[in-house]
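Lecture notes, part 5. Sequence design as translation. It can be helpful to think of inverse folding as translation between two languages: the language of shapes and the language of residues. The source text, in structure tokens, appears below.
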């Protein structure tokens, strides 16, 4: 078998089949609702992939279950032939440590293809909120424990855990309101149903329009479009949170197919249109190739296990 397509270099010939790869559409599972920076970047990358390979990547959004439905499908039904892939993120690595009956091994049960980027997290309130700074919000959370609320994209997601760590540091308490995706939090804050959002940058347009106020960003450095919003490091926490994400497949994929997909997706990531989306949304560069991505997962699994145990988190 010869794996090739137009502008992509030829790969070694795998011994498991006699058809060209890809010779049919690829299914890609995103465990979040459509919209936002993640969706925009994936769609542009897959346009480039189709131009180069002649085959489309068909996105299927599968929100719910704390962003783990795509991983569940890969483990239970996915075939390691390269035609079923999924968006992969830290909640999938964390999930086995949140339950007494884990449904997958966070390293062995996936084929790590490429880490792409990370989320731009931040905490926002309405522009008419009495909390003008992060310190204001934390002071109120100490004075009125449990009365203030904040939304995230789900229980035990990276931003939920980070927010709980921050509240722990502040000896403060807010009530967590989990949603299926970050856009639902935007709707809730617009409707005055919650106090704040601590989530990825679906709040961006509302901040630019003056509807929301950005109290802090969780990136390593300040965002050029929001130069007045301090980072968590500047606020004294010594941390940043980007929750890097990428592309995986089921366990046991052929190395030649992994290599082909990695090179095709990396080319698509470096495409001018993809880079323009990353710049527009100020998305961090978190690229890793297959081996480095798998090693990151191994190291991160240790951290996630220890953090879940320390915070006493469980979904059982």
């Amino acid at each position: 078998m010869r794996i090739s397509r137009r502008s992509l270099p030829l790969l070694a010939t795998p011994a498991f089949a006699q058809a060209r790869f890809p010779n049919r559409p690829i299914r890609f599972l995103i465990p979040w609702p459509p919209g936002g920076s993640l969706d925009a970047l994936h769609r542009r990358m897959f346009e480039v992939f189709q131009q180069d390979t002649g085959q489309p990547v068909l996105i299927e959004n599968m929100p719910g279950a704390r962003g783990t439905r795509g991983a569940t499908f890969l483990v239970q039904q996915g075939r390691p032939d390269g035609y079923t892939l999924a968006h992969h993120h830290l909640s999938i690595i964390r999930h086995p440590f949140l339950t007494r009956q884990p449904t997958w091994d966070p390293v062995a049960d996936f084929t790590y293809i490429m880490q792409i980027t990370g989320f731009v997290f931040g905490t926002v309130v309405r522009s008419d909120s009495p909390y003008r700074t992060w310190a204001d919000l934390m002071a109120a959370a100490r004075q009125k424990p449990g009365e203030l609320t904040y939304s995230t994209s789900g229980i035990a997601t990276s931003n939920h855990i980070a927010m709980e760590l921050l509240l722990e540091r502040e000896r403060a308490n807010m009530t967590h309101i989990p949603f299926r995706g970050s856009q639902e939090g935007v709707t809730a804050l617009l409707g005055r149903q919650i106090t704040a959002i601590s989530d990825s940058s679906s709040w961006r347009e509302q901040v630019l329009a003056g509807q929301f106020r950005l109290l802090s960003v969780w990136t390593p450095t300040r965002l050029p479009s929001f130069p007045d919003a301090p980072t968590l490091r500047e606020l004294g926490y010594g941390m940043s949170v980007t929750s890097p994400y990428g592309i995986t497949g089921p366990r046991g994929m052929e190395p030649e197919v992994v290599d082909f997909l990695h090179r095709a997706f990396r080319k698509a990531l470096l495409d001018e249109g993809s880079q323009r989306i990353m710049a527009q949304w100020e998305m961090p560069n978190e690229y890793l190739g297959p081996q480095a991505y798998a090693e990151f997962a191994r190291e991160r699994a240790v951290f996630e296990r220890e953090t879940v145990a320390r915070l006493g988190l469980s979904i059982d």
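The translated text above is only one of many valid answers, since several sequences can fold into similar shapes. The chain is about 35% helix and 20% strand.
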